[in-house]
Design goal:
CATH architecture: 3-Layer(aba) Sandwich
CATH superfamily: Gcn5-related N-acetyltransferase (GNAT)
Order of helices and strands: HEHEEHH
Structural class: alpha+beta
Helix content: 25-40%
Largest sheet: 3 strands, antiparallel
Number of helices: 4
Strand order of the largest sheet: 1-3-2
CATH topology: Aminopeptidase
Distance between the termini: 21 Å
């Protein structure tokens, strides 16, 4: 699912980077970010169940995404939506 959203963001909407955060002990989410090519981009704190909890911050640039881009995801009619959203067409990859 996250790969499809990244495809929409980068290929469809022309995003330059994507970010993801997960609590330090959410190993599954942190592993997914790492497997998709995100790199650790610091830590921060939030409140969970009334207690402070550390969060890992992840960053994925367009260039990093292109290296792992899937070719089996197809976007349909996204270009038709861009003018309504005020977005210029993304660069070709």
């Amino acid at each position: 699912m996250r790969q499809a959203v990244l495809h929409l963001a980068f290929d469809g909407l022309g995003a330059r980077e994507a970010g993801s955060d997960a609590f330090f002990d959410n190993h599954a989410s942190n592993r997914v970010s790492q497997a998709l090519g995100y790199v650790l981009n610091g830590v921060t704190w939030d409140t969970r169940r009334g207690e402070p909890a550390e969060i890992k911050r992840w960053r994925l640039t367009r260039e990093q995404w292109i290296k792992q881009r899937r070719d089996d995801i197809e976007l349909v009619a996204v270009g038709d939506c861009l003018p309504v959203l005020g977005i210029d067409p993304p660069p070709a990859h």
